[in-house]
Backbone:
């Protein structure tokens, strides 16, 4: 500490110690109350209580998202069921035409006219 | 003994924590009033610092650093409160420092001069001076509390001292001029 620091030390140190007040008693009580609330909240934080502690906005947003997903999922499933049901009910036109056997499409060889129409590649 | 209390408070022991608070609260509040010049703001800052202390105490690895850590919490809370409030300290300084609870035996002239000098400083500069002259911290301890290198803490202290000295000198000159016969 320099000599110039000493003069400030002589003025400021006693001044600060004289003028600094003690804490009011209600401040300490308020702090303890706040900590009590925090401690009560902290150990019983199950996943359910965490959800319960959500703000209203978060709840509203979550409900909206879940509702949208539920409607979209419902529509998707309904569409699949409807399609498969209508396919089952619809008579198979391929069978009506007498074309395909149960195993799949019959092999159809190209006719002679088809082969004649095809261009011949020359080297 | 104190080390054991700190350890117990770190482990979540409420009684140990309350004992620590009882030890430090007056000192912290005094420092906060000197930094902020506002009792209500000082109460907010001390509350913020002590609640943070309770919450973050399990993270304090070295109990030897408890005081430096606590001073760091207080100074941060004070600067945060000062930034949030941004109220002029000139109007409230007189009220706060002449409230009951302050020693009015000190000479009025000296009290006013120091008060005016402190008013001219920023909350940052006042916090450095309070750490030095009220909390009696050394420069390395201040650096630890401010979480800055020792050189930076020394520089900040030097600037704050220079600003305070300039304010006191200016005040002294003004008083001398006022006292001169016309």
Residues:
């Amino acid at each position: 500490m320099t000599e110039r620091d000493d003069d400030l030390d002589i003025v400021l140190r006693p001044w600060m110690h004289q003028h600094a007040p003690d804490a009011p008693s209600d401040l300490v009580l308020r702090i303890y109350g706040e900590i009590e609330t925090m401690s009560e909240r902290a150990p019983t934080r199950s996943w359910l209580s965490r959800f319960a502690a959500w703000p209203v906005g978060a709840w509203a947003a979550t409900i909206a998202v879940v509702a949208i997903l539920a409607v979209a999922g419902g529509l998707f499933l309904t569409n699949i069921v409807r399609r498969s049901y209508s396919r089952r009910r619809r008579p198979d036109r391929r069978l009506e035409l007498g074309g395909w056997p149960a195993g799949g499409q019959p092999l159809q060889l190209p006719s002679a006219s088809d082969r004649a129409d095809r261009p011949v590649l020359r080297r | 003994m104190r080390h054991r209390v700190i350890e117990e408070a770190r482990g979540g022991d409420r009684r140990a924590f309350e004992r620590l608070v009882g030890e430090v609260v007056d000192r912290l509040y005094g420092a906060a009033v000197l930094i902020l010049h506002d009792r209500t703001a000082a109460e907010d800052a001390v509350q913020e610092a002590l609640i943070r202390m309770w919450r973050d105490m399990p993270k304090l690895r070295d109990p030897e650093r408890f005081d430096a850590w606590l001073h760091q919490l207080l100074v941060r809370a004070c600067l945060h409160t000062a930034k949030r409030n941004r109220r002029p300290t000139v109007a409230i300084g007189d009220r706060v420092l002449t409230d009951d609870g302050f020693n009015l035996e000190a000479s009025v002239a000296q009290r006013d001069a120091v008060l005016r000098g402190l008013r001219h400083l920023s909350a940052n500069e006042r916090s450095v001076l309070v750490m030095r002259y009220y909390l009696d911290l050394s420069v390395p301890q201040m650096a630890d509390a401010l979480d800055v290198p020792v050189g930076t803490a020394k520089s900040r202290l030097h600037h704050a001292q220079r600003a305070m000295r300039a304010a006191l000198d200016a005040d002294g000159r003004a008083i001398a001029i006022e006292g001169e016969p016309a």
